[in-house]
Amino acid sequence: xxxxxxxxxxxxSEMGLSSFSDHYVPSDITHAEAVLVRSADMKEMExxxxxxxxxxxxxxxxxxxxxxxxxxxxxxxxTPGANANGVKELVIAGMLLASRDIxxxxxxxxxxxxxxDIARLAEKQKKAFAGCEIQGKxxxxxxxxxxxxxxxxxxxxxxxxxxxxxxxxxxxxxWRLSKEVHHARTADELYLGCDYITIHVPAMExxxxxxxxxxxxxxxxxxxxxxxxRESLVxxxxxxxxxxSGHVKRYVTDFPNQTIAGVKHAIxxxxxxxSTGESEDNCAxxxxxxxxxxxENGNIQNSVNYPDCxxxxxxxxxxxxxxxxxxxxxxxxxxxxxxxxNMNIADMxxxxxxxxxxxxxDIDSKMLRNFEEDIKKIDGVLRIRVxx
Length: 388
Hints:
Rossmann fold; 7-stranded parallel β-sheet; 5-stranded parallel β-sheet; 388 residues; 32% helix; 13 helices; 21% strand; alpha/beta; Alpha-Beta Plaits
């Protein structure tokens, strides 16, 4: 069986690496067919023709030149949901930290640790850090993907009145969502009525700064806003103004920067959301599985630049996979080349995603040597692979 070479740009969980079969060996980047990455910046890296796939052990891919990869026929995977539980737990912790001034109380104890009468003083001082309980309070969850669903369900189990908003919620997420979670038709419904607002949407041009000055203005006085998704989703100058005016009670964020760090009533966590051993193991294992399935069978799942496409295990057939532009008559041209060389199609599928598409073909006849070159000559083809 063919041997595959991979390169890790960051330290990757040993549990994930142990998922590789014996047909995978580590290699330097110049010879690797596959790349595993976490946070390493790949934007300025030269990506050789040998690289066929990049797997990000995590959700965000802003450190990867996705468009350049797409044009070079490199499939980029991420691992959505693999770190969801770790983030969910920190969001719940963030709500508790914001509700009761636990941080302030701990700091007070540290500041007075040498006072011999600290126990008596604590009884007098504790009312300054008392806060409130989250049971019975209203939580608004914006974005009901892997993390949002877990947060909504957990909050409902803690006795909160939970409202969820996501105009693009998947069927899978809808099935996993607790029946206790109320459906909101607009984000404004959450802003107007909820005591806590937590956001769990991807960072895109359309979501940049969606927690804006206007959105904050609609929120109840004393609201708690939580951001464990992406820094860019919140207009932080607006949130700082709202904190200082008292309109927003607390802002809990996992993204420290010069704008928010040190601001009164902001709880700033040093990007710990997915930084658990379990999350790193889950992400690494998922990334490795997806990478292997693509190299060995051509299947694509959780790609950020090409459509998901699945034809199961290759079996005894020779499988041809073609990454190409989504333009008319591509399938006709591929089958014409096959017919010219008297190659018989056993199975075929084609999926598209915006400007790009992916075609998988199983053949049960002999492969001719010039077939790949004939396919490469077709305008719009970005990469062809023959898996035998």
